[in-house]
Design a protein that fits this description.
The complex is a heterodimer of chains A (about 625) and B (about 250).
Chain A (H helix, E strand, L loop, with lengths): L6 E4 L3 H12 L4 E5 L15 E2 L11 H11 L6 H21 L13 E2 L9 E2 L5 H18 L3 E5 L1 E8 L5 E8 L5 E5 L2 E4 L20 H8 L4 E2 L4 E8 L6 E2 L3 H4 L3 E5 L16 E2 L1 H5 L9 H14 L10 E4 L5 H19 L8 E10 L2 E2 L27 E3 L17 H21 L11 H19 L6 H15 L6 H18 L13 H25 L25 H17 L2 E5 L6 E5 L16
Parallel strand pairs in A: 1-2, 1-10, 2-6, 10-19
Antiparallel strand pairs in A: 3-5, 4-5, 7-8, 8-9, 11-18, 11-20, 12-13, 12-17, 14-15, 14-16, 16-17, 20-21
Helix pairs in contact in A: 1-4, 1-10, 2-3, 3-10, 5-14, 12-13, 12-14, 13-14
Chain B lengths: L3 E8 L8 E8 L6 H10 L27 E4 L2 E4 L12 E4 L6 E3 L2 E2 L2 H9 L21 H11 L6 H5 L12 H11 L8 H9 L12 H5 L6 H21 L2
Parallel strand pairs in B: 1-5
Antiparallel strand pairs in B: 1-2, 3-4, 3-5, 6-7
Helix pairs in contact in B: 5-6, 5-8, 6-8
Classes of the chains: A alpha+beta (about 625), B alpha+beta (about 250).
Chain lengths: ~625, ~250
């Protein structure tokens, strides 16, 4: 083994690239693995912005408010010390990005501009046009390329992570990966591995995520013993445009700028939407929520749309869609305020959103859950101790996780514009944690025997051969479509235990049917069907984790909603009134039972679920979230 | 309205194999784009003659025209397949891999050369490290930021490289996309400190002077990046640099 410890980072979005940067700057070489050139990672899809308290608008914004907004946004389900530290460090992350040359939008005096985002009262979101994620990704990609020029870094782009290599003691010693051009399986040694493999939207078939956001990598280490937390918490965005291939996000700004959600009163109405008179349209958000109307929060809007479509059967043309209408607004106003977004709708739908309504439906957008990661609490500050090797460590020794594939920061629901922050910050923290860990290793390290590597390579090759030789009748792409249908129908915005039981049964059947898979592709080069078949297997595994977590959690929290267990806030009543206080007591009693992290472990019979306590020492929950 | 969608796809089984054409038909549905149609075909890999064939390989990711992965030649024009709507295309729709890069399989190509070029021209801002130094970058005017934003949206997709007559697998020309990144980084208030190095990198063989001024690049850029403007500005910058070099010898 080489004298100098080395690190493997898997995934080249914001999390993976920040981790890479910090490890190399800490003096250790990195091998960076990605399915594709890292510049094409899903981070580039984030549009809105990144939160940090800079108070450029003189609104007296404070870090404390960012902490509280994040804690409450997550409905108290996230451990609070890491949130505190993330919010404290956010301005530093932004300043660093600025030095790296991110094209942040500017005020007339040349400083970084900030705008308002959902769930907060102060302008806290820095942005770069309408493609903030892309701009951040490109800039950190450039910084990593700078390191590549110094030969501290090897990129393995076009390699798929298959598994970690564990020694007899269960310590992570490296990875197995497959070259996606030649389909060759190889193992690679490392003293530490960081997973930064992103979200898992494809488990719902189609989502707002990129087509490689399958969650397969996280699933693979889960199956090797890594614990997975809060799988049931997935954020659904209320307004995504429909597509055969993807559900493209239509920003919340559409509703903010006067967009109205409606369906025809007559389900069988065959007229063009613009020909349907006002009196024959059902503006259900405006009718059900007279105060907020179309600008109700994301989760409320998503549930209302599902109620209109699924419970009342009023979807446009009997399908899963409603109208999002901006056509009553002046063209010039729309061009100025929403130009880029409407242009995208036009590009991908071929329809003109200036003259007729857009067709939208809620879509899976972000996974709050992920690989269960730890942190070291700083006794003095009450936050996370920066630089500790425990930060973002998974339950497998030698394996860290950061970015959307981890479970930290967002609890039961993520605040808008906090994801670019958590991806960047957690990447930085994970990288620094690994540096601390490596510096603490004894100088003379025992040589690692070849056996675990040989065994893992053989196991992975056998898995490939089993799929290539399998001669059943199940098409892997069709299996994925069916998985998506189950998740979309039964593990969606509104959940109930009967449907969740049905979903679990359906998922288990898919798991069995996977054994009957057949590939149409026998190619020895760029065999995308093989890679996909392996991913669909791993998606099915995580789907069961998600669904079982949802089935067991009998409450409403953040993005997870079961009508049967809703504790309703008494209308028009506030703290002090007997009705409100009784409501508060019911809510607290429910917290006693459910304010805990869902932790899943793998077994051959499916996931086993346990619960772990949450650190609520920064801002203990005294009152339910209230966006009235 | 047509009842089916017809494709003619240029295929190649491996990097060394020779290419061949294959035709496909699939049922028409509204709002398909080239990638969503390819997704249908991979689930139903049967050619127009009804023979079962190996699924077509191609690359995609974001499906929103921001990652650049799915770039291919659609009816003769290099573009992102995800943003190429079937309803806007004449049929049969002809799909080819970009011709200026090695084909790995079918429509999947290797654009490593473009990333190597970014390395060569030092397309980054030099900073002392990713730690916070409690300072921002120097001020940047909204106008300058607006210009920079245009250049910084380059997806390294390869459309401009495909359209450029001077860039091909045998040529040394680095092509329009990396040149525009020199323009971008030379205009940053601290990026300017390394302007000389970047200019020297494009004053070598295969650099700026290999541009034949065909102006094809700017016409095919999906992000409307003012590539020819950048090349013009770099011409002035390299001329000035040439004089500086001459007098500092």
């Amino acid at each position: 083994m080489a004298d100098k410890p080395n690190v493997i980072v898997v995934g080249g979005g914001l999390g993976g690239l920040w981790a890479t940067l910090r490890v190399v700057e800490g003096g250790f070489p990195v091998d960076l693995f990605s399915l594709f050139p890292v510049k094409r990672s899903h981070s580039c899809c984030a549009q809105g912005g990144i939160n940090a308290v800079l108070d450029v608008k003189g609104e007296g914004d404070t870090i404390w408010e960012h902490v509280i907004d994040t804690i409450k946004g997550g409905d108290y389900l996230a451990d609070q010390p890491p949130i505190k530290t993330m919010c404290e460090e956010a301005p530093g992350v932004i300043r660093t990005y600025d030095r790296m040359g991110v094209t942040f939008s500017r005020t007339p005096e040349g400083i970084m501009d900030q705008r308002l985002f959902g769930g907060v009262k102060k302008r806290r979101t820095a942005f770069a046009g309408a493609t903030t994620g892309q701009q951040l990704l490109y800039t950190i990609d450039e910084q990593v390329r700078r390191l590549e020029s110094d030969k501290e870094l090897n990129k393995y782009e076009g390699w798929e992570f298959l598994s970690v290599v564990l020694d007899d003691a269960g310590q992570c010693r490296g990875i197995a990966a497959m070259n996606l051009d030649t389909m060759e399986v190889k193992t690679f040694r490392a003293d530490a591995v960081i997973l930064a493999t992103g979200g898992l939207g494809l488990i719902w078939g189609r989502s707002t995520m990129s087509t490689n956001s399958t969650g397969a990598a996280a699933s693979r280490v889960f199956q090797q013993g890594c614990r997975f937390a809060n799988g049931e918490f997935a954020q659904f965005h209320p307004t995504a445009m429909l597509g055969h291939d993807k559900l493209r996000l239509m920003s919340e700004a559409c509703r903010g700028e006067g967009g109205r959600i409606w369906v025809p009163k007559d389900v069988g109405d065959k007229r063009q939407p613009s020909a349907i008179p006002e009196t024959e349209r059902f503006y259900f958000l405006e009718e059900w929520y007279p105060t907020y109307g179309n600008t109700v929060p994301r989760d409320v809007a998503s549930r209302a749309i599902c109620r209109a479509v699924r419970h009342m059967g009023m979807g446009v043309g009997g399908q899963n869609m409603v109208y999002l209408d901006l056509s009553h607004q002046p063209r010039k106003f729309l061009e100025q305020r929403l130009g880029g977004i409407l242009e995208m709708y036009q590009t991908f739908s071929g329809e003109d959103p200036y003259t007729g309504p857009m067709k939208v439906y809620p879509a899976m957008h972000y996974s709050m859950g992920g690989l269960y990661v730890g942190y070291e609490k700083d006794a003095k500050s009450g936050g996370m101790k920066l630089g500790s090797a425990k930060n973002h460590a998974t339950s497998i020794p030698g394996l860290w996780a950061c970015g959307e594939c981890d479970s930290a920061y967002h609890g039961a629901n993520r605040l808008g514009a906090n994801s670019l922050l958590s991806a960047s910050f957690s990447g930085r923290v994970a990288g620094e944690a690994v540096v601390t860990y490596l510096k603490g290793l004894p100088k003379a390290r025992p040589a690692i025997p070849a056996a675990p590597f040989d065994q893992e390579k053989a196991r992975q090759e056998a898995l490939n051969q089993a799929i290539l030789k399998s001669d059943g009748k199940e098409n892997p792409f069709a299996l994925h479509r069916e998985l998506g249908e189950i998740m979309q129908e039964k593990v969606f915005v509104e959940r109930n235990n009967k449907e969740l039981d049905e979903a679990l049964e359906g998922i288990r059947k898919l798991r069995d049917r996977f054994n009957q898979i057949t590939l149409d592709d026998s190619g020895t080069k760029v065999n995308q069907s093989l890679s996909w078949a392996r991913q669909i297997h791993d998606m099915i595994v995580l789907a069961e984790v998600i669904t079982k977590g949802a089935r067991l959690r009998d409450e409403c929290r953040g993005s997870h909603y079961k009508a049967e267990f809703e504790i309703k806030c008494p209308e028009g009543k506030f703290a002090g009134s007997p009705e409100y206080e009784a409501y508060r007591e019911r809510w607290k009693a429910s917290n006693e039972k459910w304010l805990k992290t869902t932790v899943a472990s793998h077994s051959a019979d499916g996931p086993t679920i346990e619960y772990a306590p949450i650190d609520i020492s920064i801002f203990p929950p005294e009152a339910p979230r209230d966006y009235r | 309205m047509t009842q089916e969608i017809q494709f003619r796809i240029k295929r190649q089984d491996s990097p060394d194999a020779s290419s061949y054409w294959e035709e496909f038909r699939m049922p028409y549905a509204p709002a398909h784009n080239v990638v969503s149609a390819l997704m249908y075909l991979r689930e139903h890999p049967v050619n127009a003659q009804g023979q079962k064939v190996q699924p077509v390989a191609w690359e995609c990711n974001c499906m929103e025209e921001v990652c650049g992965a799915c770039t291919m030649i659609v009816n003769g024009v290099p573009k992102q397949a995800c943003a190429a709507l079937i309803d806007d295309l004449e049929q049969p729709i002809v799909l080819e891999p970009l011709s200026k890069f090695p084909v790995m399989r079918d429509l999947q190509i290797d654009r490593q050369k473009m990333f190597d070029a970014l390395l060569k021209v030092k397309a980054w801002i030099e900073i002392g490290g990713g730690h916070d130094i409690h300072r921002h970058a120097p001020l940047i005017s909204p106008d300058e930021q607006d210009v920079r934003y245009h250049f910084s949206r380059c997806m390294t997709c390869g459309c401009c490289m495909e359209a450029c007559p001077q860039f091909h697998q045998e040529s040394k020309f680095i092509g329009p996309a990396p040149l525009a990144q020199v323009r971008l980084h030379n205009s940053h208030p601290t990026g300017v400190y390394n302007k000389t190095e970047r200019l020297h990198a494009i004053m070598e063989e295969g650099g700026l002077t290999d541009c034949g001024n065909a102006q094809n690049c700017v016409k095919v850029c999906p992000k409307d990046i003012p590539l020819t403007t950048a090349i013009g500005e770099l011409g002035r910058q390299t001329t000035a640099q040439w004089f500086r070099d001459l007098f500092s010898k």
